[in-house]
Amino acid sequence: MQNIDHIFNSQQSVCASLAATTYKERQRKIRLLLENFLDMESEVLAALSKDLGKSKTEVYLAEILGVKTEALFAIKNIKGWMKKRRVSTPAAIAFTKSWVKPEPKGSVLIISPWNYPIMLCLNPLIAAIAAGNTSIIKPSELTPESGKVVQRLIKKTFKEEEVAVVLGEKDVAEKLLSLPFNHILFTGSPEIGKIVMSAAAKHLAGVTLELGGKSPTIVDSSANIKDAAWKIAFFKFANAGQTCTAPDYILCEESVHDSLIKELKNNLVNFFGGDLEGGSKDYCSIANDVHFERLVDALHSSTKSGSTVSLGGNMNKKTRYFSPTILTGVQEDNPIMMNEIFGPLLPVIKVSNIDSAINYINKKPKPLALYLFSKNKKNKDLVLNSTSSGGLVINDCVLHHTNPNLPFGGINNSGVGSYHGKFGFDAFSHQKAILESSGFSPFKLLLPPYTKSKERIATLIKKFF
């Protein structure tokens, strides 16, 4: 634990010099990080295979491409993000000029999760570097090989007083949270997010919390069912459903329910083969025994409460294999509808119309993402204007996460703040207000003592400005 204090104090000592770095220096750092990361591709693949059983293709698409896209976007845009920008001036103070200048918050703590254990370490780090901060990263202890890869990468790229990786269990996270960081970015569950926010409050630190939640998918009667089915099946069961933006459940209009179930089954068999009784090289395992047992309990509880396993339901405790599973006949009060699933269980609820789907969603905590499959413009507008979520995706899933021009974040129970692209730069920056006054100021005419004439002048100012 003493080493953590040493790292934190050494980083505090260089915050001011990092704040003064130019856009070229920050570009160079991110470029070197990316180059070293790509050079370590074989280590990344091996670590993710050992930790989660991820296939190469999934690693390329999610982890490696995700980091590369974020880094290149930052390198391209840092110069513009860092610029002091002139803002307009009200007529009442026309004798002044004003600007807004982003400056680093200072010291940053990044606590990353186990589901995408490398990308969700490095993408926030890229934003923190772009903004000119020091950073300490705490990877998840549940994916130890990935954490070691991140640590080797950071040691290869940065001095410890600028960026450091600290490995360890819960006690390490608690120690880090006791330190007076200027900003904390946490990705994980709402329950732990509350603990992080409480710890940050002791130092009045800023927070960005990415917390997930039950992201609903609406399929209305106008939807292209074949298109909806492959997209839902792919994005739900990628990473064995262990994705914060994965479709958590489906609200499907009755008239297209049976055809959607049929197409979902067809796609899952095509993706992973056979009757899904065994493992597949294209399908990863559940992260650990605790989460495996949690999913087993969730499935049993759901079926006891009336749902039917329409596909899947197979598992192997030794390998932590849990097959893609579709649940039908799910009622709104089924236990599986209470908490985020974060695994390969897909409940499908029949609804009579779009209003019923919206009413159900609005009774729940606000989700990180909401997905709508529809060709009906009225329904699209209705969902957009009648629901609240971190993001809305129409006729697809998850892809908003891949656009660095969009903010990625939740609302209330699903998160606080956002990042990605410039939004990440802004999350780790303070927007400093700057005002410069000229030699003349009319307020000199209004100095105390306040006479009747000065009162008249104030009245005119109030009236005309």
Overview of the molecule:
- There is one protein chain.
- With 465 residues, this protein is of the alpha/beta class.
- The protein is built from 16 helices and 18 strands.
- The strands form four sheets. The protein has a seven-stranded mixed β-sheet with strand order 10-13-14-9-8-15-16, sandwiched between helices.
- The relative contact order is 0.13.
Instruction: Describe the main β-sheet briefly.
Output: 7 strands, mixed
What ranges have pLDDT less than 50 throughout 5 or more consecutive residues? none
Overall outline = globular
Q: How far apart are the termini?
A: 58 Å
**Helical content, roughly?**
40-55%
> Number of DSSP helices?
16
> Strands of the largest sheet, in order across it?
10-13-14-9-8-15-16
Number of strands: 18
Strand content is: 15-25%
What is the residue-averaged pLDDT?
Answer: 95
Secondary-structure class = alpha/beta
